[in-house]
Amino acid sequence: MADNCRYDVKRNEKLGRYLVANAELGCGDLIFTDYPFAVGPKPDTPPLCLSCYCPIESKYCSRCSWPICSAECELSPNHQPECSVFSKAKIKFQPVEDWTVSAPQLDCITPLRLLVAKEQDPDRWSKEVQAMETHTEQRRKRSTWKADQINIVKYLVDHCKLNCRFSKELVEQVCGILEVNAVEIPSRGGFSIRAVYPRLAIAAHSCVPNIVHSIFQPDYRVEVRAAVPLQKGQRLHLSYTHVLSPTILRREHLRESKFFDCDCPRCTDPTELGTHLSTFKCSKCKKGIVLSKNPLDKEASWNCSENDCDFRTSSAVMHKLLSDLQDELDSLDSLDTASEAVEQREAFINKYQLILHQRHSFMLCVKHALVQLYGRIEDRGIEEHVMSKRKVELGKQVLQTLDVITPGESRMRGMLLYDLHTPLMNLARSDFRAGVITKEKLKEKLKVSLQCLTDAARILCREDDQSPEGITGKIAFQSMEQLQASIAIL
Q1: Does the CA dihedral 305-308-314-320 come out positive or negative?
Q2: Quick check: bond before 218 cis, omega within 30?
Q3: Could you report how far apart the first and last alpha carbons of the chain are, in Å?
Q4: 8 Å CB contact between 227 and 410
Q5: Strand ranges (DSSP E) for 133-239?
Q6: Rg of the chain's alpha carbons, rounded to an integer?
Q7: What's the Cα-to-Cα distance from 221 to each of 36, 115, 211, 214, rounded to whole Å?
């Protein structure tokens, strides 16, 4: 643990514990580093290597007979907690027919690792973990409670014969700590996993965050930085949801996973701070926009903004529409080729442009994907100049929204800036070759592309150097030097 942490822990009745900056901080300044108390598979995960978390099929640990991909992973410290327990109790992983579908057997792994970590580091448990919120009474009313009783509590206490080490109540507490506080993180093995970070968990939520976090391997440490300049005493806000989600879905996710109703300024405003991420177009008058009358009331009606239009619909209808659109959006991720993915996403925009505001969440998600996809198309039926212009147009729309809902320096912004530098550069050079702009104007436009690269390199080089973002950051830095040299000789 670092001793020079730049935050204080405060408490109030609404938030419980929360963090505030204890010094003036600049954009990108490191606030603290935290290490996970436990790391492991998420619920509903297919069988995976219990050390490196890579996809696996019919490979087992020679000692405990649970999924492990190699001799190296078998000896890894990651796997030792459950390996010791299962070997002693002679509890084997039951073979499955399909190694690509959810395996409830793995649901017990991360809770068991948290329990073993409590034994190994009781001081940290008592100081940092034990006080974490579990929302036990609310969780008892859910179907997941019964599943956890079977797959985790009874399995560990009775089947694995751990009743002398861990009480039923303690295992239930650990399940709650994980459900309420765990963070989904990437692994290099191909699956997302989860981890409990005691200090990161204290940071309050906002749908307009002012801090960002980065995960580093192999120890899964997290670095928390200021996304924007912060004043001493300012509350530190992390987003617990996907920032591009509309209000209905964000608040539903927070209610289901974190057991609270968000009432931040973004959730309170029907226009989402003017971004219109939840806004629909009126199908009746064709002029107005359709907004929730009260976003904090999940039963509130949605009305047209035009005074002379009486269009009105229920929140249930809007929720069903969002659900259907989300399903259609999800289906786009399964497309095989970049060309097909581009074509179908452009078709989605054309199909719903009369229904969704151009900056609606789903429109922006599609546009964000297109920014990443353009340039990867093997079929050159699309003219390079047209493709570059489209990529810049879409990228700028997404960046304008990020300026409001996730201001400052974030991974998404860094990757977008990197994706934008090439089309900006190509358009400038194309215009110069065509005689549309002078050499001085070319130089000016190339400097804009260089600024994108510079900003991208600065943001992304703070990420793990083997992550996609970290690798892109290194490429951005190299490209930045090359572009600087090109500008210098003009």
Answers
A1: negative
A2: yes
A3: 50
A4: yes
A5: 183-185, 193-196, 204-205, 211-216, 221-226, 237-238
A6: 25
A7: 7, 20, 16, 8
How far apart are alpha carbons 146 and 18 in whole angstroms? Answer: 31
Q: What is the pLDDT of residues 152-165, one digit of tens each?
A: 999 999 999 999 99
Three-point CA angle 320, 321, 323, nearest 5°: 65
Helix (H) / strand (E) containing 472:
helix 468-488
Distances (CA, A) of 241 to 205, 222, 445: 9, 18, 36
Strand ranges inside 166-258, DSSP E: 183-185, 193-196, 204-205, 211-216, 221-226, 237-238
Over the chain (490 residues), what is each successive 10-residue block's mean pLDDT?
Answer: 76 93 97 97 94 94 96 95 96 93 95 98 97 95 94 96 96 97 90 95 97 95 97 97 95 94 97 98 95 96 95 95 94 84 94 96 96 75 82 97 97 97 95 94 97 97 95 96 93
Q: DSSP states of 32-77 as a string?
A: EEE--SEEEEPTTPPPB-TTT--B-SS-B-TTT-SB--SHHHHTSG
pLDDT of residue 379: 55
Q: Is 325 in a helix, a strand, or coil?
A: helix
Question: Rounded to whole angstroms, how far apart are CA atoms 381 and 369?
Answer: 20
- pTM flag (> 0.90): yes
Q: Taking a C-beta distance cutoff of 8 angstroms, is the pair 119, 63 a contact?
A: no
